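Lab notebook, entry 308. We have the chain sequence and a SMILES string for NAP, and the next step in the workflow is to get a structural model of the bound complex before anyone spends time on docking refinements. Request logged below.

Task: model protein plus NAP, output structure tokens.
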Amino acid sequence: MKVLILGATGKMGGGMVKALKDSPHQLYALSRDPTSAKAEALKSNGVTVFKGDFDDRDSLDQALSAGIDSVFFTTVPDLQGGDSDLRQTKNIIDAVKAAGVKQLIYGSLAYPGTEEGFKTIHESLEPTNWVKLYFNRKLELDQLVRDSGAQYWTIIRPPSFIQNHVLPETVAFIYPDLPTKHQLKSTFDHSIPQWYADGSEAGKFAAAAVNDPEGLHTKEVKFGAEALTAQEVAEKLSQASGKPITLYQWPEEELKEALMTHPFHITCEIISKMGFDPKIGNAEKYGVKLTPISEWLENNKSGTWLSS
Ligand SMILES: NC(=O)c1ccc[n+]([C@@H]2O[C@H](COP(=O)([O-])OP(=O)(O)OC[C@H]3O[C@@H](n4cnc5c(N)ncnc54)[C@H](OP(=O)(O)O)[C@@H]3O)[C@@H](O)[C@H]2O)c1
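Result returned:
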């Protein structure tokens, strides 16, 4: 099969390339900068990389004209509240439809909490609440995929990425005090666990869908490697970094401020109210082995604050 991976220089798409690079499938990617180090790495793995942009329909049509059978995509939400992810998802799905691509695989997210907890809390939020708008958008994108008319579609639902605690761009935004003050400032309820995984492992499930389009058709694959409390995350970060990471106890005023201004902290606080679902998809059923969190941290600390 000819497989076009949109987002191949990113975590989920990159994981999919890794899972398929030694398969008989021909891999294609699209990047805004095909000369970047990540795009060059794709090429050295035998991936054909097109220059393009999800906002540029012609570039999508051009990539799809290679006779693509299967498309994976994910889009990045605009944390300022813009609608680029909606616009880009529509663009991608329209291009996929026009090219008559058989299979569409979408890298979405796992809705947090229990099914009932998510529904109740989500419904209770004010229409202008940031978290309500964020999840509304994700629900809308999921529906666009289900309604895409693709012969086969699959939605992959990863939990929180453990990368959020490690990669410079996310650490700077979410946990700026981790590398310097060794404090984990989490607004998750400290007694409620959350599911985590290496985000790139979403790509393993996407690869499973390429290998079995019919079997994974209409499947919405939820997975998680480990359920951890904030304290357990801090312990794993301490172990990997060799530094004592403490769980920050927010002073009341500072917490109030964070819950009014920081999209990630606002989201985590609300997510905790959605409860915890101990049941999670069975990865083995899809032939996927998930990496334990400590192992991932140990193998990926080079070049990050964990090893500085
Ligand atoms: N972080 C979490 O905890 C978490 C958990 C569950 C789900 N998610 C979801 O994961 C998704 C992001 O996936 P990811 O983390 O795998 O992505 P990522 O690592 O942030 O990479 C983004 C990818 O999208 C491509 N891209 C972005 N804008 C583009 C554009 N305009 N045109 C063409 N390509 C574009 C980038 O390619 P180039 O730069 O090469 O162009 C890159 O390959 C989001 O929807 C997020 O909601 C995140």
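Notes for the group: The first strand starts at residue 2 and ends at 6. Worth checking against the assay data. The first helix runs from residue 11 to 20.
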